[in-house]
What does this fold into?
Amino acid sequence: MKLSGSERLRRFYNQFSKTDQVLVVINADPDAIGSAMAVKRLLWRKAAGVTLSHFNAIKRPDNIAMTRLLRVSLIHTDEIDPKKFDKFVVVDSQPGHSEAFKPFKFDVVIDHHPVSEPVKAPFVDIRPEYGATASMMTEYLRAAKIKPSAKLATGLFIGIKTDTSDFERQALIEDVKAFQFLFRHANIHLARKIELADLRLDFLKYFRYALQNLCMRKGRAFVHLGSVTNPDICVLIADFFMRVNPVKWSIISGVYEEKLVVIFRNDGIRKNAGKKAKQTFEQIGSAGGHKSMARAEITLENLPSSLDTADTRRTAQWVIDQIEKSPKRGQSAEKKESEDESEEDESEEDES
It folds into this structure.
């Protein structure tokens, strides 16, 4: 049964009392930050206090600029004592997405990612068809008849732009309506300043390495970067190669904190990136995403013992081999290869 915006808001508010200390836990990125800001605004005068907390390291320049310019107060979960809080909320993620969520028993889960495992909480609102959780949170604000401040509107505005890649990725008319509403209240100049702060000087060496070691296979761009100081570097480079003609898929990997991180991007015309990531890596790690963007993470101990991830060329070849040989469930590799070739032919005809 599809709920109305007012009914969702009522059920959301029913989880809280005016004496509650609420902790909102996020994996900080623009969509999560904007959505967390919206939760805090919704609970103003509805709870005794709301604290925003992140478990990941905030190192991307645009995320740093966003928290600084929008004056978002975030506390790392390492500094949080769960016993001091009565209610727990997660937005733009799900409890099963990270080990970092385990110390918390969530009362509210609001997200736009596909469900990877059953989510148990008193209030769950997961809508994977949406392009951004920020769009969902904008609907909550509108149902509550709250006019967002310029900073809140800007945060949500950036969240939608980022997660839909300016509506080049999966989105609904609801995302567009939320974006149009926020446009009237956001500080566009501030948003632009935050968006432009997406590179650091020390990131450029990875771009140089990627350009020098790019492997192209049937419209797919592969690069293994080796050890990276931040997994977001893989994201930036994957997005960069999608701007290059004739790249149809961009698959960039790197090693971060004893994990092999693989980022998938495609043009949205061909196969589903999220399904491809799961077919390839879910047996040995976590994997999933949307049609045009996905991510997989495999702990190094789950990789073949003969694979030395410091050998970037060999690791790149291993990633390529895993992706190219992964058939759909119940499908032979021969049939998969035939369908892949047919799909590419049809796509080329569509483009001509």
